[in-house]
Prior knowledge:
By secondary structure, the chain is an alpha/beta fold. It has five helices and ten strands. It starts with 5 loop residues before the first helix and ends with a strand.
Amino acid sequence: MPKQKYSDLEEIKKIYESVKKIGYKKTSEKFNEHISLLERIVRRYEENKEVREMKVIIIAAGMGSRLKDMTKYLPKPLLEIVDGKSIIEREIDILREVGLEDIIIVRGYQKDKFTIPNIKYYDNDEYIENNILESLFYAEEAMEDGFICTYADSVFSKDIFQKILDAPYDICLGVEPKWKARYENRNEHPTDEAELVKIKGSEIVFISKFCNPEVYDGEFIGVAKFTK
């Protein structure tokens, strides 16, 4: 059975509540199966509702200077990568597919180029002087009830966000354990730029760019969840 989208689950819950209100008789085995399925879906909806209502903060303030002329007139997240969609548009589509609708973008470099509808924007006008973490805190007022943050210029699969959402931890970071293979034949983003993590059991005990890559367990890929 395919996974239900969050909007589908809301509709299913309405149907289920209507059936309960009207009342029903258990008339057949098949009918009972359908009712049981509705009950399971509604339970899953209620269990995941708080997580699905989390805000997503996309950090998109940087200049993307490694791409040189490609980002001279357009921020890196707005570069097209597939089917006429930009990196950030594709990311937003995936976020919405997994039920995350409350999306925020922190913009800086060429901020007026970001015109995606139904998005709340925060502006980091000091993007040249500060860094990714400081950009994130321009949206600090949106963090109170828990949030997911993600880089705007990374290409993620839907599974990454699904795993982050489903993980039963208050704080959860996406980590690539086979990160070294991704750096082969790269020269514009050397390994000393990787945000490396040290893991003990299921916990991240250290994260830094300034460390010996030989003793670390993976690379932070730029997506994290923080519950309230």
